[in-house]
Design goal:
This protein is α+β, with helices and mostly antiparallel strands. The chain contains two helices and four strands; from the N terminus they run αββββα. The structure holds zinc ion (ZN). InterPro entries: PP0621-like. Keywords: Membrane, Transmembrane, Transmembrane helix.
Length: 87
């Protein structure tokens, strides 16, 4: 009875591992395809705060402005607020 349980556990474990491998492969494949697409039609945008160029899909957008990170977006917005004089 215990041997049966062990065999069942091993089969279950192997199946789970195979399924994980299969999923990983699929994900990697899709990632590669996405990368190729980005290289073909990838658009670069400039961070409004530090002038660094970043791919559009990695950049953050706030209205018409682009930012390389949320930190820079927040800083830019903060400065805008300071200029306006609104608290
Ligand atoms: Zn930036």
């Amino acid at each position: 009875m215990i041997i049966r349980l062990i065999i069942f556990a091993v089969v279950f474990y192997v199946g789970l591992k195979l399924y994980g491998l299969y999923r990983q492969r699929k994900l990697e494949h899709e990632e590669q395809r996405n990368k190729v697409n980005h290289h073909e039609g990838g658009k670069m945008v400039r961070c409004r705060w530090c002038d660094v160029h970043v791919p559009e899909e990695e950049a953050l957008r706030d209205q018409a402005q682009w930012f390389c990170s949320s930190a820079h977006r927040d800083r830019f917005l903060q400065e805008q607020q300071d200029k306006d004089g609104t608290p």
